Amino acid sequence: MLRVMGLSALVAAAAAPSGAATVTYTTLATYTAALGYTPSVGETFNGGTLDGTLLSSLGGVFKLTNNKVTQVGGTAKNGQTTTLNFSEAVTSFAVDIGSLLSGEVANVYLDGVLSATLSGSTKFFAVISPTAFTTVTFADATNPTINTQFNIDNLRAVPAPVPLPAGLPLLVAGLGAVGLMGRKRRPARA
User: Fold this and answer.
1) Domain count of the chain?
2) What is the CA radius of gyration of the chain?
């Protein structure tokens, strides 16, 4: 009986959320090492259109050119924003950053929660989050006298895994316990 209870506790612990934090990366090498593989580029913005499948729309201030998104963060000096809207929840995304100048700063929000800050030296930005998100917003965070705007290209995104129903591991453990108990009660065959 103790063995069955121990197994049930182990399965329940495995089903509990890990409590991991959102992690950001500034190189493709460290990002792919953390993922364990290199995600393919899902959006190149070629032809001035959204050509991928995960990115459904762009919102806010931006300019979609023939091969990248420019003027991300706005064209005015009042903290304008650019939002990437995904067609399904993702747990990770990455973009190449261009033209973010020294002294310029942009905040990155995942579903409205501040998750990172980009500075003028940033050429690549990626995030892996334990919580799925559907929007990424870049906001001008430089003081009001400077207009922060930059380019993004080669967007990579990793769809969120389909969640396991919360009670399923407990159900499996319970059925296993019932099976073990039934096996012990059966008389031995001669």
Assistant:
1) 1
2) 23
Q: Domain containing 94 — which CATH number?
A: 2.60.120.260
Q: Are 157 and 44 in contact (CB under 8 A)?
A: no
For residues 126 and 157, what is the distance between their CA atoms, to the nearest angstrom? 9
168 inside domain: no
Helix (H) or strand (E) holding 5: helix 2-15
Q: In which band, very low, low, confident or very high, does the pLDDT at 11 lie, cut at 50, 70 and 90?
A: very low
Domain-embedded: residue 146: yes
Q: What is the mean pLDDT of the chain?
A: 79
- Single-letter residue type at 158: V
Q: Is 145 exposed, middle or buried (0-12, 13-18, 19+ CB in 10 A)?
A: exposed
Q: Show the beta-strand stretches assigned E in 79-176.
A: 81-98, 105-110, 113-119, 124-140, 150-159
Cβ contact 48:144 at 8 Å: no
Which residue segment(s) compose the domain that 116 sits in? 31-160
**Vertex 42 angle, CA 39 and 48, to 5°:** 150
Residue 34 has pLDDT above 90, yes or no: yes
- What values do phi and psi take at 168, rounded to 5? -60, -45
Judge whether 165 lies within some domain. no
**Mind listing the pLDDT tens digit for each residue in 113-141?**
999 998 888 899 999 999 999 999 988 88
Residue 189 counted as domain residue: no
